[in-house]
Design goal:
Elements: E1 8-19, E2 22-33, E3 37-41, H1 48-55, E4 63-68, E5 71-72, H2 80-84, E6 87-90, H3 102-112, H4 118-131, H5 147-159, E7 165-169, H6 177-192, E8 197-200, H7 204-210, E9 213-218, E10 221-226, H8 228-233, H9 238-245, H10 249-256
Helix pairs in contact: 3-4, 3-5, 5-6
């Protein structure tokens, strides 16, 4: 862990994001190092997804600074397309092209945006599909896939751009419960392989298993930050304690029965 933390990848300094008069993110500061997995949790509407969109330059910011390897991320910059190639983002909705096969969906951006040779991209795409157990679906269309399969294809599509960091925004939120595990297992494997990630999730057991650090957001601020063992066993703020108690309901209910 100590070795991984030597190389800084992303720095956020005093980030402020507002929509008109509504402040969504207040004075957020964060440093992410190569190979580190940060999980962001918190109640709905606390700014988690907005934070990822700001990091990817999809939202203009009203204050502060975000840099990737020292290069400022600005959605209006002429360099933003190049920067986004280094930040693979996977959304709640898969956003696959329905008229293209799985393989065509994955290969499109590396060939069109990065101008890479077709043979090279196809070989990498197949390798990644095999890694997530979907190589046999390469010629299928999105309509022929389950939700979990579509989300794994979306992850492969992002990985095929060879990003330096992956951003996951509630990627299991739209899935049936039985499909959640296959997607989370894919992300867990990426983490084990040393990938750098920021993950927004409501899956607490997954957050505990995959993260190096947990950020708890509420009201647009980082209320608490800790290693997962500390955060989930001994949260320091009353707000975090209240939040975690909401996930204990089922256990309490079944215990009473």
């Amino acid at each position: 862990m100590a070795e991984l933390l030597k190389e800084e990848l992303l720095r956020i300094e005093h980030l402020r994001k507002a929509y008109d008069n509504t402040v969504v993110l207040k004075d957020i500061s964060l440093t992410v190092h190569k190979g580190e997995v940060i999980v962001v949790i918190g109640p709905s509407g606390c700014g988690k997804s907005t934070l990822l969109r700001c990091i990817n330059g999809l939202e203009p910011i009203q204050g502060g600074k975000i840099t990737l390897r020292g290069q400022e991320i600005d959605g209006n910059s002429k360099d933003i397309a190049q920067i986004r190639q280094k930040l693979g983002m996977v959304f709640q909705n898969y956003e696959l092209f329905p008229h293209k096969t799985v393989l065509q969906n994955i290969m499109l951006a590396p060939m069109k945006v990065q101008k890479r040779p077709k043979d090279e991209v196809e070989a990498q795409a197949k390798q990644l599909l095999e890694r997530v157990g979907l190589l046999e679906k390469k010629d299928s269309y999105p309509r022929q896939l389950s939700g979990g399969q579509k989300q794994r294809v979306a992850i492969v599509r992002a990985l095929c751009m060879n990003p330096e960091m992956m951003l996951f925004d509630e990627v299991t939120a739209a899935l049936d419960p039985e499909m959640v595990r296959e997607v989370l297992d894919t992300i867990l494997e990426l983490a084990k392989a040393g990938g750098t990630m920021i993950i927004v999730t409501h899956e607490m057991s997954f957050a505990k298993a995959v993260s190096d650090r947990v950020l708890f957001l509420d009201g647009g601020e980082i209320v608490e930050e800790a290693v997962p063992e500390k955060f989930f066993s001994d949260p320091q703020t009353e707000r975090a304690k209240r939040f975690l108690r909401t996930f204990e309901y089922d256990a309490v209910k079944h215990h009473d029965i």
